[in-house]
Write a structure and sequence with these properties.
With 455 residues, the chain is an alpha+beta fold. It has 10 helices and 19 strands. The chain folds into 4 domains: 89 residues, 2-Layer Sandwich (Phosphorylase Kinase, domain 1), CATH 3.30.200; 166 residues, Transferase(Phosphotransferase) domain 1 (Transferase(Phosphotransferase), domain 1, Orthogonal Bundle); 108 residues, PH-domain like, CATH 2.30.29; 47 residues, no CATH class. It is 31% helix and 25% strand. It has a 6-stranded antiparallel beta sheet, with helices on one face. Strands 12-13-14-15-16 form a 5-stranded antiparallel beta sheet, with no helix packed on it. Strands 7-8-9 form a 3-stranded antiparallel beta sheet. The longest helix has 25 residues. The radius of gyration is 27 Å and the shape is globular. About 7% of the residues have low confidence.
């Protein structure tokens, strides 16, 4: 296979992404059936170099991926063979731009406890989805190289060739899969259970914290010894130790119980809304609000008008800076050209002021639909994206005071915060306290309803 080769008159190879010696090749390709061509990952297995176990795992991965619909798993697109009889087997998935966590580790990056908590929460939600399918799907090879930190700041799980999609039976043969250091003992005996994936998650988190592969960490009674190599809160360290208990009976039994233990009490990275004792907890809108809310089980639309605190301090700062800097620049330019005037220096500042005032007056839209939410402003026919994220990744919604600006232009405003993955999306800078509290309740109620709808 070479760059620019076209497979099945559809997939044009771009560059290799990696190769498992003697068995598989992985390519970034363009799907020419879409307009414009979309990037995809094509995984190829050479028939003349494979063993039957390789083909078995390859076919299992294609079978498993067809069953999965989750925003943190690259979507299955196609599977095919090349040649007659076949000399290549192919599997196609969506391409996720980003770096694997192994690449982050190889570059010397170390993650904080806060970041590790977020990765754990993201992946526990994903594992809960996999393990609660009927039959449950066990990944069985969770490790840094199989986790992609996407450019959208979410963690994606890839490489399902080791996945198990049916319960083990007494007397049945099995293929030993997993990576030493990340796979628990029961998995090498062919008895993987949901808690086996939790061990792989725990070993991965420890690797990210310490920078040391779990296979290279000292052990005591088969337990990984990592506390003396990293600064962690006692509660989180204990939670992590139970995640990698060698005895499966002592480990967290499910992703749900591990997630509940991690989030109770809520970690300090998710600050609760600062509410007075008599805070209204009603979905009824505040009196005289101009915010419009449209909701259904499938979507939630919030339209927040510009103002009423208008012009905002941000716009006033722009006005003052434009009048000072803009006038100086234009005067200097006109003097250089030998045509000084008193009126032209005001044109640039007035133009900037007009644009700033127009921007400030445009409504902000917050739209929840499908598995995504977006925050944007509509300027004419142009949609300007102010923030976005995956709804399943939402960890908390709250309102709080935020410091806006820098230096002498700093001021505090009440805002609504949607916390997802490693980021926070903020809106509502011109809203009152009552409106922010109301919108938090509206979003939380809709998310709870959506969760029941999808169960």
């Amino acid at each position: 296979m070479q760059a620019n080769d076209i497979l099945r008159d559809r997939y044009q190879l771009q560059r290799p992404l990696g190769r498992a010696p003697g068995r598989q090749a992985c390519w970034l390709a363009h799907d020419l059936s879409t307009t414009p061509p979309q990037p995809v990952v094509v995984k190829l297995l050479a028939f003349n170099e494979m063993q039957w176990d390789d083909l078995k795992l390859f076919e299992r991965e294609a079978q498993v991926l067809q069953q999965l619909q989750h925003p943190q798993i690259p979507r299955y697109r196609d599977a095919f063979t090349i040649g007659e009889p076949p000399n290549w087997f192919g599997l196609v998935q969506d391409y996720i731009p980003g770096k694997s966590l192994k690449q982050w580790l190889d570059a010397g990056k170390r993650l904080s406890e806060k970041q590790i908590r977020q990765i754990a929460i993201n992946l526990l939600h994903l594992l809960r989805y996999l393990h609660e399918l009927n039959p449950p799907i066990l990944h069985r090879d969770i490790k840094p190289s199989n986790l992609i930190w996407g450019e959208d700041n979410f963690i994606y799980l890839v490489d399902f060739d080791a996945a198990q999609n049916r319960a083990a039976r007494d007397g049945a043969t099995f293929t030993v899969v997993g990576t030493y250091g990340y796979a628990p003992l029961e998995q090498f005996g062919g008895r993987a259970v949901p808690a086996s994936d939790l061990y792989g998650l725990g070993a991965t988190l420890i690797h990210l914290l310490t920078g040391i592969s779990p296979a290279d960490l000292p052990q005591h009674n088969l337990r990984l010894q990592f506390r003396d190599r990293v600064q962690l809160s006692p509660t989180f360290a204990s939670w992590l130790e139970r995640l990698v208990e060698p005895d499966v009976a002592q480990r967290w039994p499910s992703a749900q119980t591990a997630l509940a233990a991690l989030q109770s009490p809520p970690p300090t990275t998710f600050p609760p809304a600062t509410l007075p004792a008599a805070a209204p907890r009603s979905l009824a809108p505040p009196v005289n609000t101009r915010v419009e809310v449209t909701r259904s089980p499938q979507e939630l639309l919030l339209q927040i008008p510009g103002g009423p605190d208008w012009p905002s301090p941000l716009v006033l700062t722009v006005i003052i800076a434009s009048l000072i800097v803009g006038r100086y620049v234009v005067v200097s330019l006109l003097q250089l050209l030998g045509t000084p005037t008193l009126l032209l220096p005001l044109l640039v500042p007035l133009l900037v002021v007009g644009v700033a005032l127009y921007w400030d007056s445009r409504p902000t839209v917050v739209h929840f639909q499908g598995d995504r939410f977006t925050i944007y402003k509509q300027v004419g026919q142009t949609t300007i994206n102010l923030g976005q994220g995956a709804i399943p990744h939402i960890a908390n919604v709250f309102h709080t005071l935020k410091t806006i600006g820098h230096g002498k232009n700093r001021y505090e405003r009440r805002v609504v915060v949607i916390q997802t993955g490693f980021s926070e999306e903020v809106f509502g800078i011109n809203l009152s306290w009552e409106e922010c509290a109301w919108l938090v309740d509206v979003i939380q109620a809709w998310l709870a309803q959506r969760s029941r709808w999808h169960q």
